[in-house]
TrEMBL record:
It holds the Pfam family SBP_bac_8. InterPro entries: Bact_solute-bd_prot1, SBP. Residues 27-81 are annotated as: Disordered. PROSITE patterns: PROKAR_LIPOPROTEIN. This is Extracellular solute-binding protein. It comes from Eisenbergiella massiliensis. Residues 1-23 form the signal peptide. Keywords: Cell membrane, Lipoprotein, Membrane, Palmitate, Signal. Residues 64-77 have a biased composition (Low complexity). Residues 51-63 have a biased composition (Basic and acidic residues). The lineage of its organism: Bacteria, Bacillati, Bacillota, Clostridia, Lachnospirales.
């Protein structure tokens, strides 16, 4: 799966009491689970304007377990000192300065020393594969995508953590756990948001008499784009797209909305379907409308378009706000966020782009210490909210987040007093779809991308592209 560069945190306040079910949230009550997902983090993008939280955790080591639990309740924290004094090694692709804030907090709150090692994703995958095959050399914990789980399980590289996370199940929407569940077991904890939406230049839309709240379907979205491009004489384009395809956030959203799958939940090749043909038909309408600027993501022209308003709409993950803050700091109050348009009025608007997850390796002897690291990123209130959201700009996904004052306050980069973090949280909690994933899903997707590109460039019709991809996937992967 194509990995989107994104950062996000998951906020959950869980109160642990002996003999009782763990509850999540500032009130101490369990929140009801809400249904709702290429998740590579944009670790370099950190908001300089983010508010820094200076509170310290007062949990102290005590021989009396009841006093430790009382301290945990008082501080609304799920961190414990069960593994105090242990040192663990963790791997990931985030920059060291990004990781350090959480690693320091793990030391403060649990007494566990975290030695983080940063490497490219490809290098991490290679090292994990070798270490798993030889039976030694795995770190205590690491981050990879949730779509990597089938391969990691097949390699015996990760630990089943179903029992470990059971007390914290109410902290996250059920869809979060569904994303890291494989063969009936939970293997990781989501560490960033799989959600996304449309980021509009509100001032540009206002100039052309367009209300972003009314762009609830792709038909309406297309008409608005044509209006902007026509009335601006092409000086403002509706969205950006690489020359060889529409771009992952838009096409992945549309494929999911149509239920178009390369491999279905029965692990059978399902690409040559009416679902895919219908999705490609809509994508062809978008292509033929000629309302996109031929600009690649992460390029200098892409950043410039955010600053000068020459592109009116960006479909992306909820992490994209940090790119705006970093790259277009003078655009305060000029943005507006909505869910993606639906195929039909009232249809699904909440895609799942996949998520980075925290894993505990199968070889570690420091399971409790590694779990403290996982909790700090995702389940602990201070780690995920005070540090993850406020300091690192990591989007929130927990059941308790919507009750938080910071999440519900207006964001300075958005017009009409939009509470962006609230909307970003809802974009996840309203999602229900989790794409099926298997050990060979990535290879199947790579095969399809070649034919998809040929179709997008007009070198192959939809029927030929789909049937050719189907045949090659079946042959190479030996699937039905």
């Amino acid at each position: 799966m194509y990995m989107l560069r994104k950062v996000l945190g998951i906020v959950c306040a869980c109160i642990l009491a002996a003999g009782l079910t763990v509850g999540c949230g500032a009130t101490g009550k369990s929140s009801e689970s809400a249904d709702t997902g290429g998740a590579q983090e944009n670790a370099a993008v950190i908001s300089e304007a983010a508010e820094t939280q200076k509170d310290t955790v007062q949990s102290e080591k005590s021989g009396d377990s009841s006093s430790e639990e009382a301290s945990s309740q008082e501080n609304n924290s799920v961190m414990s000192r069960k593994a105090e004094g242990q040192t663990i090694v963790v791997w990931g692709w985030d920059l060291p300065e990004f990781n350090k804030k959480i690693e320091d907090y793990v030391k403060e709150a649990s007494g566990v020393t975290v030695n983080g090692q940063t490497m490219a994703r490809e290098d991490e995958v290679s090292k994990l594969t070798v270490a798993a095959a030889t039976g030694n050399g795995l770190p205590d914990g690491f981050k990879l995508g949730n779509e990597d789980i089938p391969r990691l399980v097949a390699q015996n590289a990760i630990r089943d953590i179903t029992d470990l996370v059971e007390p914290y199940k109410d902290c996250l929407p059920q869809v979060a756990w569904d994303m890291v569940t494989y063969e009936g077991k939970i293997w990781g904890i989501p560490a960033n948001s799989p959600a996304g939406g449309m980021f509009y230049r509100y001032d540009v839309l206002e100039k052309y008499g367009i209300n972003p709240e009314e762009l609830t379907t792709w038909d309406k979205w297309l008409e608005a784009g044509k209006k902007v491009v026509e009335e601006s004489n092409g000086e403002v384009m509706w969205f950006n797209a690489p020359k060889n395809k529409v771009g992952v956030p838009l096409d992945m959203t549309i494929f999911q909305q149509y239920g178009a799958q390369i491999l279905n939940s029965d692990h059978k090749v399902a690409i040559n379907s009416q679902n895919y043909k219908d999705a490609l038909s809509l994508l062809q309408e978008i292509r033929d409308a000629k309302i996109s600027a031929p600009i690649d993501d992460w390029s200098a022209p892409w950043y410039q378009s955010m600053k000068d308003g020459t592109v009116a709409c960006y479909g992306n993950g909820t992490w994209f706000v940090q790119t705006l803050i970093q790259q277009a700091p003078d655009t305060l109050g000029k943005w507006y966020f909505t869910p993606f348009p639906a195929v039909e009025e009232g249809g699904d608007r909440y895609p799942n782009f996949g998520s980075t997850a925290c894993f505990i390796s199968s070889q570690t002897k420091n399971v409790d210490a590694a779990f403290e690291w996982c909790k700090a990123w995702t389940l602990d209130e201070k780690g995920s909210l005070e540090i993850g959201l406020k300091e690192l700009g990591v989007s929130v996904v927990s059941n308790a987040a919507l009750e938080n004052e910071y999440v519900n306050q207006p964001h300075e980069f958005f017009a009409k007093d939009q509470a962006y973090w609230k909307l970003a949280t809802q974009a996840f909690s309203n999602s229900t779809y989790v794409p099926p994933f298997f050990a060979d899903s990535s290879e199947a997707d790579s095969i399809w991308q070649r034919y998809y590109e040929q179709w997008w460039l007009g070198k192959m019709d939809a029927d030929t592209a789909l049937s050719s991809a189907e045949e090659e996937i079946k042959t190479k992967l030996k699937l039905e």
